[in-house]
Design the sequence.
């Protein structure tokens, strides 16, 4: 399956891109995606506990299963307001 | 429009107008703005970015939560994107209710939720560098 990855703020700087696609096996979870992305971008540090994830704009934890066509956003520590 | 992300300077009167009315005996207002110093350094400006579709959905969620906990409350959230100079407002939250207890409580609830969970990021710009707030030293 193919998912769309979105990066923001410091993670976008580390990845060097704002978005990209990732191909994954059918049963893959968010954790699997983060591991693969860490291999693609060595300084990303996406598995750090301070990074939150959202799938199709809803917060999820690392065990959340992915599906074809979803949008996985990697959210570094937020500072709105 | 009650829930807004904008590159334009915020207009507090416009935000208030979305929650006031003859049924609102009380309106509580929060304004966040850019401080000119942080961690001992002079801040020239802040730059804000957001995961915009999710941020707007989160704003709607906070407003909905307030409406459930304090029935009849109206909530507005306007947040800046882009560059904001020292002294400029970066977020305005307003809550209108029949009575002040609900207005105070709803406004506070929304501000705290926004600060904890809204996918929005600010970068402090100094004259000799910059720093994503929340990223540690």
Sequence:
């Amino acid at each position: 399956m193919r998912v769309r990855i979105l990066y923001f703020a410091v993670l976008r700087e580390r990845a060097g891109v704002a978005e990209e696609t990732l191909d994954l096996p059918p049963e893959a979870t968010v954790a699997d995606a983060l591991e693969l992305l860490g291999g693609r971008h060595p300084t990303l540090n996406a598995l750090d506990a301070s990074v939150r994830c959202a799938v199709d704009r809803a917060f999820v934890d690392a065990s959340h299963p992915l599906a074809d066509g979803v949008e996985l956003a990697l959210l570094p520590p937020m500072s709105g307001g | 429009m009650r829930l807004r992300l904008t590159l334009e300077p915020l207009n507090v009167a416009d935000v208030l107008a979305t929650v006031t009315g003859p049924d609102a005996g009380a309106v509580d207002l929060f304004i966040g703005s850019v401080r000119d110093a942080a961690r001992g350094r002079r801040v020239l400006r802040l730059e804000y970015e957001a995961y915009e579709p999710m941020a707007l959905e989160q704003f709607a969620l906070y407003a909905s939560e307030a409406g459930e906990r304090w029935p009849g409350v109206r909530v507005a959230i306007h947040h800046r994107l882009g560059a904001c100079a020292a002294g400029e407002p970066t977020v305005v939250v307003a809550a209108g209710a029949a009575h002040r207890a609900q207005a105070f409580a709803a406004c506070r609830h929304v501000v705290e939720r926004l600060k904890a969970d809204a996918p929005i990021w600010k970068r402090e710009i100094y004259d000799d560098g910059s720093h994503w707030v929340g990223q540690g030293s």
About this structure: The interface with chain A takes residues 32, 48-51, 53-55, 57, 79, 90-91, 111, 114-123, 132-135 of chain B (CB under 8 Å). Chain B has a mean pLDDT of 96. The longest strand of chain B covers residues 89-97.
